[in-house]
Specification:
By secondary structure, the chain is of the alpha/beta class. The chain is 34% helix and 25% strand.
Length: 153
């Protein structure tokens, strides 16, 4: 029974990837400390810089970067929806390795996103955001996370 479910999931992921290849391609640069996260759009402009919710237990840098990437997935899903796409691909470039990339891929999948996860600590613009300068994502146009609108109509 487990193998059937696993095969169904692979098939669903493959179907999503096929559909997403014709949709927009989003990119988010992500960095975090144990207290804050920063998410930038493809041109390096910050779309979100905030503290983690006080109820989250961020006990390590690994946990912080994963929580920040989950926030980026959530924002990218909103951007995809605002643009009018059902599915899309999302490249997240983090400032350090993610311990559980599978958890991020599953979160992206249920949001209609195919995740491409990379690490770039040297040129990641999210690492250079000035601490204490808060950026509210609700004031950002999340469609600017779209790097390549492949499915222009």
């Amino acid at each position: 029974m487990t193998s059937v479910a696993a095969n169904d999931r692979v098939t669903a992921e493959q179907r999503l990837a096929g559909r997403a290849s014709a949709g927009p391609h989003l990119l988010a640069w992500v960095a975090a400390t144990r207290q804050t996260f920063t998410i930038c759009r493809p041109d390096g402009y910050t779309v979100a810089h905030d503290r983690f919710h006080r109820d989250l237990i961020i006990d390590s840098y690994d946990t912080a970067i994963e929580a920040a990437a989950l926030q980026a997935i959530w924002l990218a899903a909103h951007g995809k929806d605002l643009w009018g796409a059902d599915v899309a691909t999302l490249r997240i470039v983090t400032s350090s390795f993610v311990v559980d990339p599978g958890a991020l891929r599953r979160a992206a999948f249920v949001s209609g996103l195919v995740l491409d996860l990379l690490v770039d600590s040297a040129t990641n613009p999210a690492t250079g955001h000035q601490l204490g300068v808060w950026v509210d994502w609700r004031r950002a146009d999340l469609t600017y996370l779209i790097q390549h609108p492949r499915n222009q109509q």
